[in-house]
């Protein structure tokens, strides 16, 4: 995807193609500009909501009604009504803990399914990966009852476990696919050199799989940070994530729009930053679901 | 799928160390044990938090349960549901949302085709189009709420364009609210699906396109006769992902935009589970809707396995 296949051909065309203003070249040029204009239009449609949110986050209620003037009124109202810093911290904590669990179980099991097969490992793999098809809403009621009975919904733990379980099937699939690409000889050689299977995994396989680990981390971070349902049901109100907190604030219908836009903006920033830095990993993760 | 490779690897190991023939089997045994131990945590996590609840949900679905007392009613609970007009109203919303799928696939396909022309700045545009993927449905819904409201962006845009001051609140009518939800959904899927199609186009053999061009096919002809048929696998994948999203990822959007209303206008099955289960505290009926959703998703998933992995030798 990185190397545009047309570029060399184009370069050749400019060097030795027909004259600079030949009809054919002119047609091609207007076509190119047409495409560019079209892409610009799509960009406006995709970016407008961001502009709207930023523009209106810096207004007060009355400034919003008049649609003129900017101030920090919305921000002041937001911070008065929502423990923003605390909820951002909650989001971070839940994300980090859940991702840590996902990485731990998906790298070990992915390695086992790819390189340390045992009788029935194929079925176990199928079992784990097929859980991908379970929509959260289908199990949310028994899940809630179970975790509430174990007193896990009064702390971060319940939500962390649910997020971890939801992320594990795809992460395991991805890791197993990745480890299958590592040569068996490499693993065998490490074993024969006297490293145990566990140490072969930690010292050889794990460092090799850093790209896949990055993909899982980015994908899961955005998914968990942006999630509402689990954060809404499995966390006590005092420990809500920013996304859940914002949605509840909005559902109250008493907060002014600039305050909600300010909340939207600040809640979106971490995920956008992660996206901008790790875009490539995210893209890879989305399309890797197809297998090879 | 594992047996032949294990013996092959075992044979290779024993060939390397011919004097310790028993070493290979001991090694194999140890490998199997290590594999079992390393795969156990994932299995336990998934079985306890995803597998067991599914079984429980099946059981709960056949009870009437208000959170305190549960009464067993058996499979007839499903019959009761199937005669409930509200259930069909909700399912109808799900079916209507499927009408958004052609747009949620067609628009990204066109955009991907645009980007694939590699016009100057296409990388930048790709990043821009993909940006909404990082945004939560909550934030998207928050904007959509202002966009479609009576005093919102859409109405001021329409009056600027000379469509008069109709100033209708799209979220106030049942049908128009569902349409607003569908439009927001389509917008949100643009990034993901564009990336899938773009990845697909990158795998195409450029000489094939070149050959078609030499044969005198126009850009449009090349797209419909060469590119599109070669993208079938990617289109199927995007289709399944989009259907899954439409049925099980819109909770936050509905929660923020409409709360399922007006009436049951935008209540889909996944939102109904939440409403019935957690707002009305009817755990049994909520679980039942969850099971129906699961069955629908399982069918979609099986279709996906059929479509996407026909030639995969791994056996799953």
Highlighted features:
heterodimer; A: 292 residues; mainly alpha; MetI-like fold; flat; B: mainly alpha; 2 domains; two-stranded antiparallel ribbon; 2% strand
The structure class of chain B reads mainly alpha
* Biggest beta-sheet profile of chain A: none
Mean of the pLDDT scores of chain B?
82
Helix fraction bin of chain B: over 70%
The fraction of residues assigned to DSSP E strands of chain B is under 5%
- The CATH topology of the domain at 84-248 and 269-288 in chain A is what? MetI-like fold
Q: What is the N-to-C order of secondary-structure elements of chain B (H for helix, E for strand)?
A: HHEEHHHHHHHHHHHHH
Number of helices of chain A: 14
Task: Write structural notes for this entry.
The complex is a heterodimer of chains A (292) and B (316). By secondary structure, chain A is mainly α. Chain A has a domain at 84-248 and 269-288: MetI-like fold, CATH 1.10.3720. In chain A, 78% of the residues lie in helices and 0% in strands. Chain A contains 14 helices and no strands. In chain A, helix 8 packs antiparallel against helix 11 (210-226), helix 11 packs antiparallel against helix 14 (257-288) and helix 13 (242-251) packs across helix 14. The longest helix of chain A has 35 residues, at 23-57. The two termini of chain A are 16 Å apart. Chain B has 2 domains: 3-60, no CATH class; 82-308, MetI-like (MetI-like fold), CATH 1.10.3720.10. Chain B has helices at residues 3-16, 21-60, 76-82, 85-97, 101-116, 122-130, 137-148, 153-160, 174-202, 206-214, 219-230, 232-248, 251-257, 269-279, 283-308, and strands spanning 63-65, 70-72. The radius of gyration of chain B is 26 Å and the shape is flat. Chain B is mainly alpha-helical and 316 residues long. Helix content of chain B is 73%, strand content 2%. Chain B has a two-stranded antiparallel sheet with strand order 1-2. In chain B, helix 5 runs parallel beside helix 9 (174-202) and helix 7 runs parallel beside helix 13 (251-257). Classes of the chains: A mainly alpha (292), B mainly alpha (316). At the A-B interface, helix 2, helix 5, helix 6, helix 7 and helix 8 of A face helix 1, helix 2, helix 5, helix 6 and helix 7 of B.
């Amino acid at each position: 995807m990185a190397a545009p296949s047309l570029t060399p051909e184009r370069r050749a065309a400019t060097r030795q193609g027909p004259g600079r203003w030949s009809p054919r070249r002119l047609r091609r040029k207007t076509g190119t500009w047409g495409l560019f204009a079209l892409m610009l239009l799509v960009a406006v449609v995709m970016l407008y909501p961001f502009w709207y949110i930023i523009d209106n986050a810096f207004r007060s209620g009355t400034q919003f009604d008049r649609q003129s003037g900017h101030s920090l009124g919305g921000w002041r109202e937001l911070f008065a009504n929502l423990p923003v810093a605390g909820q951002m911290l909650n989001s971070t904590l839940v994300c980090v803990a859940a991702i840590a669990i996902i990485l731990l179980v998906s790298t070990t099991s992915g390695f086992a399914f790819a390189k340390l097969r045992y009788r029935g490992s194929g079925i176990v793999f199928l079992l784990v990966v097929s859980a991908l098809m379970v929509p959260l809403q289908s199990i949310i009621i028994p899940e809630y009852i179970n975790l509430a009975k174990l007193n896990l919904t009064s702390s971060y733990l319940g939500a962390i476990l649910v997020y971890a379980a939801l992320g594990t099937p795809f992460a395991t699939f991805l890791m197993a696919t990745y480890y299958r690409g590592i040569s068996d000889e490499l693993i065998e050689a490490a074993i024969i050199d006297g490293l145990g299977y566990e140490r072969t995994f930690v010292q050889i396989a794990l460092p090799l799989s850093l790209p896949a680990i990055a993909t899982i981390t980015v994908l899961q971070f955005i998914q968990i940070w942006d999630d509402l349902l689990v954060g809404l049901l499995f966390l006590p109100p005092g420990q809500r994530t920013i996304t859940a907190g914002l949605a509840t604030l909005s559902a109250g219908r008493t907060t002014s729009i600039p305050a909600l836009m300010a909340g939207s903006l600040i809640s979106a920033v971490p995920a956008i930053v992660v996206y901008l830095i790790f875009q490539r990993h995210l893209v890879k993760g989305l399309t890797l679901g197809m297998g090879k | 799928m594992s047996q032949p490779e294990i013996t092959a690897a075992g044979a290779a190991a024993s060939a390397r160390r011919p004097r310790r023939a028993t070493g290979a089997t001991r090694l194999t045994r140890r490998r199997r044990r290590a594999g079992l131990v390393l795969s156990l945590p994932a299995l336990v996590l998934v079985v306890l938090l995803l597998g067991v609840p599914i079984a429980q949900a099946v059981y709960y679905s056949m009870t009437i349960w208000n959170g305190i007392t549960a009464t067993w009613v058996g499979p007839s609970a499903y019959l009761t549901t199937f005669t409930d007009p509200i259930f069909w109203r909700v399912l109808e919303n799900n079916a209507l949302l499927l009408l958004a799928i052609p747009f949620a696939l067609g628009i990204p396909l066109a955009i991907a085709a645009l980007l694939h022309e590699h016009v100057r700045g296409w990388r930048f545009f790709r990043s821009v189009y993909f940006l909404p993927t990082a945004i939560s449905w909550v934030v998207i819904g928050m904007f959509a709420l202002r966009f479609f409201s009576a005093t919102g962006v859409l109405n001021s845009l329409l009056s600027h364009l000379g469509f008069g001051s109709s100033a209708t609140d799209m979220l106030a009518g049942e049908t128009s609210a569902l349409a607003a939800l569908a439009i927001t959904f389509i917008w949100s899927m643009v990034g993901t699906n564009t990336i899938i199609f773009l990845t697909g186009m990158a795998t195409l053999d450029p000489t094939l396109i070149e050959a078609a061009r030499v044969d005198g096919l126009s850009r449009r002809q090349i797209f419909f006769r060469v590119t599109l048929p070669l993208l079938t696998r990617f289109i199927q994948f995007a289709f399944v992902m989009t259907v899954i999203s439409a049925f099980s990822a819109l909770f936050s959007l509905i929660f923020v935009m409409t709360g399922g209303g007006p009436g049951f206008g935008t209540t889909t099955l996944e939102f109904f589970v939440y409403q019935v289960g957690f707002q009305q505290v009817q755990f049994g009926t909520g679980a039942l809707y969850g099971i129906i959703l699961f069955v629908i998703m399982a069918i979609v998933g099986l279709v996906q396995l059929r479509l996407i992995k026909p030639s995969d030798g791994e056996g799953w």
